[in-house]
Design goal:
Radius of gyration: 17 Å
CATH topology: Maf protein
Helix content: 10-25%
Order of helices and strands: HEEHEEHEE
CATH class: Alpha Beta
Largest sheet: 6 strands, antiparallel
Distance between the termini: 28 Å
Number of helices: 3
Structural class: alpha+beta
CATH architecture: Alpha-Beta Complex
Strand content: 25-35%
Length: 166
């Protein structure tokens, strides 16, 4: 897009409260990332915070921490439909705008070798649900209901109309 940017790494609690619903959880984390980044940057530039989680039944999958956790997530998602929640928040020091997108993804059945090969490449580590739909995880998708990118609306920031005063 030709936009100059810097990456900030604010310290954000990405643990879900047991009673927090997935939509509220992913939005909270995105907003905290934006606000944390605003604090790091000195508040003189707009900051984008984003987060994605995967929910299977009532279980939330955040970022896989290692090879074994990614393997476990992919095994549980194999042949199943799950929800992917993505949130974005843009803070500028006066207001914060935000949006949440939810898509439904159904994986085909995955055999052990496929899961192992995917995890060996390293892509699933640090990724919600242990897969990246824009990467190797795309070959696991049997059906998708919703926007492929989940962030297609971000190209037109004028559509972000959920605004809160800071």
């Amino acid at each position: 897009m030709g936009v100059s940017f810097e990456i900030a790494q604010p310290n954000v609690n990405e643990r879900s409260d047991r009673y927090e619903n997935p939509r509220d959880y992913v939005l909270r984390v995105a907003k905290e990332k934006a606000m944390g980044g605003l604090s790091i940057s000195g508040g003189n530039k707009p900051v984008l915070g984003a987060d994605t989680i995967v929910r299977l039944d009532r279980k939330i999958f955040g970022k896989s921490e290692n090879f074994q956790e990614a393997q476990s997530m992919l095994k549980q998602l194999s042949g199943r439909k799950h929800s992917v929640f993505s949130a974005v928040a843009i803070a500028n020091g006066r207001t914060i705008e935000h949006r949440v997108v939810v898509i439904e993804v159904t994986f085909r059945d995955l055999d052990c070798d496929e899961r192992m090969d995917c995890c060996r490449c390293g892509e699933p580590c640090g990724i919600a649900g242990g897969y990246a739909i824009q990467g190797l995880g795309a070959i696991f998708v049997k059906h998708l209901n919703g926007s492929y990118s989940g962030f297609c609306w971000i190209a037109d920031l004028s559509k972000l109309r959920i605004i809160e005063d800071l």
